[in-house]
Design a protein that fits this description.
Number of strands: 25
Largest sheet: 9 strands, mixed
Distance between the termini: 63 Å
Strand order of the largest sheet: 2-1-10-9-11-12-13-14-15
Low-confidence stretches: none
Number of helices: 15
CATH topology of the largest domain: Rossmann fold
Radius of gyration: 23 Å
CATH architecture of the largest domain: 3-Layer(aba) Sandwich
Mean pLDDT: 96
Helix content: 25-40%
Strand content: 15-25%
CATH superfamily of the largest domain: ANL, N-terminal domain
Bound molecules: malonyl-coenzyme A, adenosine monophosphate
CATH class of the largest domain: Alpha Beta
Structural class: alpha/beta
Number of domains: 3
Shape: globular
Length: about 500
Amino acid sequence: MANPLYDTLFGRYAGKTTVFLQMVDGTTITHAAFLETAGRFANLLAHLEIAPGDRVAAQVAKSPQALALYTACVQAGVVFLPLNTAYTADEVSYFVENSGARLLVCDPASVNDLQGVADACGAGLQTMSADGGGSFASAAAGLPADFATVDRSDDDLAAFLYTSGTTGRSKGAMLTQGNLLSNSETLMSEWQFTAQDALLHALPIFHTHGLFVATNITLLAGGRLLFMPKFNVDDMLSLMPHATAMMGVPTFYTRLLADERFTRQMAQHMRLFVSGSAPLLAETHIQFEKRTGHRILERYGMTETNMNTSNPYDGERRAGTVGFPLPGVEVRITDSGTGNELAQGEIGQIEVRGPNVFKGYWQMPEKTAEELRENGFFITGDLGRVDEDGYLHIVGRNKDLIISGGYNIYPKEIELLLDQEDGVLESAVVGVPHPDFGETVVGILVAEDGAELDLDAIKDRLGRSLARFKQPQKLVVLPELPRNTMGKVQKNILREEFKDLFQPAA
Ligand code: MLC
Ligand code: AMP
């Protein structure tokens, strides 16, 4: 027996003094030192009686220690559950309770809010601060760096990543060791990562993109991460001359382009720019090439599936498309009514099958059955078509979802809260174009007869339970919502009506 994910990504670097992490201030952490921290953390997990298969939830700032916590979980066979640092205590409470996490690791500043959450769920609470300090690291400091790696198989769970659902309830996507490993191996080879690579890492590490795609591929290749606590144009520009590759959401690219210091010369040392998690406008693709001479490589993925398709490394990277299925991944376009496969060129729902596709939603067999067919195809909820050259175009979504700056926001979750407000008869939440975030959230309210709505007070209350990035940037009151003959709210009409709210005046 062995632990495929740990052995392949981490274990082989034991004792190696090659650089793994390079921080903004130039300090570095070797593979060996990183693994020692992770080993101590794994010993602490065992000491806290966190058993293989148990869940550990972490709402912590991005730091080398936060990454070591992920590594420790892999080594100890524990399921890692990373959480967006923007989530409120209400939101965290759901994840801890739903996952049955045995331990919650949080920022020291959140202890007051989260101690009650942990207690109510019977979970332990430890802290980890932005500089990696806190109770968890302190307790681990005296423990041995050696840890007997727990045996796991490809089919064992490595992580739970929660994705929101159209009903407003988040679902824990169960990802196995095999899901993560197979995808990293494929991407490393497709994107030609080697030990010579230095990847600009400005993505958060609580999502697939920053945690698995960026980190796992670099680990597998033996390269280094230029590790930034968060995206910031100044840091990106100061590190880019030392980098060979970058991965980002479209907002990273539009923000870089908006800065005149970002020049062709700045990008000279780079061999690859990858974009994903949200649609990259063809216009951004074109502008980027004009400015730097590089064509951004756009790929398509999901929490449940890791990466599915990619534009080619060699060959034409076509703007406005997400390229071809990755080796080992099948993509098909089906009719959303019948589920039958459509002819090439027709628009339908995108389905994917392969070793990258998750095991199902934690304790939600009905939801799993709705989206994961018995034959292994996962219904992504995205709509697309394959062009005559085989490139996949994503043309829309079959799911009510807003993607703002690469974060997914499910309107239903916000509508449920708005509907509970006194004086609100009903509500609809839609995404409208936004120059920085791609899309942003607008809430449309209908007041009960004679009711006066205090929009500031409503915003205030939303702020108590919803992460900031999910809160509507604008609330609007309408006399009624547009409905079709079946009585269904016509969100397309609302999106059209408010599409220019955030667009700069022409
Ligand atoms: C921050 N804010 C956002 C936001 N991020 N609002 C809407 N959408 C977002 N994505 C808000 C904050 O609450 C704050 O509000 C203000 O913007 C500034 O906060 P900040 O922390 O300074 O923001 P900033 O650093 O500028 O963050 C923007 C960003 C970040 C784009 C750099 O959101 C980011 O790193 N996004 C990447 C998301 C990602 O990794 N997605 C991958 C998912 S995996 P206020 O009002 O308080 O000022 C996936 C699968 C796949 O989708 O295919 O990859
Ligand atoms: P998440 O649930 O956060 O993993 O988000 C997955 C969703 O992001 C997908 O279902 C798509 O809707 C969207 N997405 C990811 N990559 C792209 C891309 N390159 N272009 C358009 N949409 C994308």
